[in-house]
Amino acid sequence: MITSKRIDRAATSNGHWSGLWGRAHRAAAQALDRSRGWDRLSLPLALAVLAGLRDSLRRHNLVDTSALPTTQLPAVPPREPRMLTERTVDGTHNDLRAPATGMAGSRFGRNIPLSAATRPTSAQVLEPSPREVSRQLMTRREFIPATSVNALVAPWLQWMIRDWFSHGTSPTDSPWQVDLAGDDPWPGRPMTIMRTREDPTRPDTASPRTSINTCTHWWDASQIYGSTAQQQRESRAFEGGKLRVEADRMLPTPRSDHPTLQEPGFWLGLVPLQTLFTREHNAVCDMLAAEFPRWGDEELFQRARLVVAALTAKIHTVEWTPAVISHPVTVTALRANWWGLAGERLGRAFGRLSDSELVSGIPGSPTQDYGVPYSLTEEFAAVYRMHPLVPDLFDLRSHVDDGRYRAEPYTLRELSGPKSLALLDTVPIADFLYSLGTEHPGLVTLNNFPASLQEFVRPDGKLMDLAAVDVLRHRELGVPRYCEFRRRLRLRAPATFEELTDDPDVAGQMSRLYGGDVEQVDLMVGLYAERRPAGFAFSDTAFRIFIVMASRRLNSDRFLSQDFTPAVYTAPGMQWLADNTMASVIVRHHPELRPALRTAPNAFTPWQRADAGA
What we know:
By secondary structure, this protein is mainly α.
């Protein structure tokens, strides 16, 4: 039951640590981080430092864009009683005080002051050439693997991003025109890159630059359930609460003109995950129908949707992210986000021991927005551009005997676009999952960008260099370049290229490209070049955005905070969430993969090959 007392409690406090103790903790955390580095401290001290850094980031790096001049806002439907215990399809009424917060079509926030998110000039967007940044600093000459994780981390992240954010379809007129070097083999001159569409809710195009998110901002599994009523209707079977699947439990085959197949990022890696969690939704429906035989289709659908959305959030929080940043401190901190420092065992045995998120985790704690209306941010989207995770080659094998489907690996190009679906007639989804689970992704570093994505042919036939596009997008959307980005997070900025990277050849190459001015280094270049903490597949600077935003996505969503209760989810639904992991989901729907997963402590770490001993 939702009570006004709990809502008022969340509304009357901004959640920051106040008083002398709070100021002292933040100051000590920053001093220790600057002098030693959080990753080089003992576990208890490092956790205390990260807590202090997070509080500081919550104070200074959550910036509201909704108060800027606004027109033509999306319509907010009136509240209905069912919205207290059901997610709406468009994300409205999650925040009961401000029902438009986080809805589809609302603005991205910022993690930097609006004064720093300026609308760039054409020269600032195009210089130095994003194409030359791609060619000189991104091109993968030799695959650099991230050996602590498996290749499933790459499609999982892309699948999650399809739930989190989209800037919408670019306009076709007035593209950016990128001049090319004389030796550039690109077939068209100049290279054209479509612009990000202007914010339709701004009455002018003044600074700062703003954009809208066509997805909802909430962690609500919209990649499964859609962000519009039409998308949700198309996904549902309208029987027993279930989603549509064929008799063989595969997803309905999309039509040739289906929008999913026309999206530039579609590839076969997304299909196993979409299929897996569609089946998981239906499995939850079966469980709930057995527990509550009098429930109808709508009630079963809504409860199952809550459970599956929360399960994807849990998997990303306590499995995917700790695998990708597997430092002992971050593993403990991320698990504490879900269960608190009291830990999973105590939580399962005794329930919440405290309202404090530090003690008992964020799910079930009071909803909190830290004084800033909730939204995902442009900077969060920027640091999640991790295309080096994607290999160029995929060695597809059988889970039975580890035998190859063909002598040479499949290329990413062969696995991309609508024509790739035909491969599933030959390679079952279980074998595709096995192949991803037994291979490594790429390390998020310089000179490790997939070659296939630097010459990527979209479904509409347009050729694009995704590395150049990524660099240009940061500039275009007013995300600061690397040095200024670090300063805005109260981190030291490198004074020289040699401080940024310990590779003298790379430092020299960057210096030539950026005219000797380290201040001009692009955010993505700096993130890929800097020293990574032990166990990290990506940068420490990017991690600072995760420190604040990973928690915020749980804190501000009432279905993942104060309404994470048996009254909303049902007691069996809460038990399902407590009991399940990525591995259990995979094994439930593909029991033939149990031997491969039996030695993996986490489904995103390398699986055991079929020929790797008994």
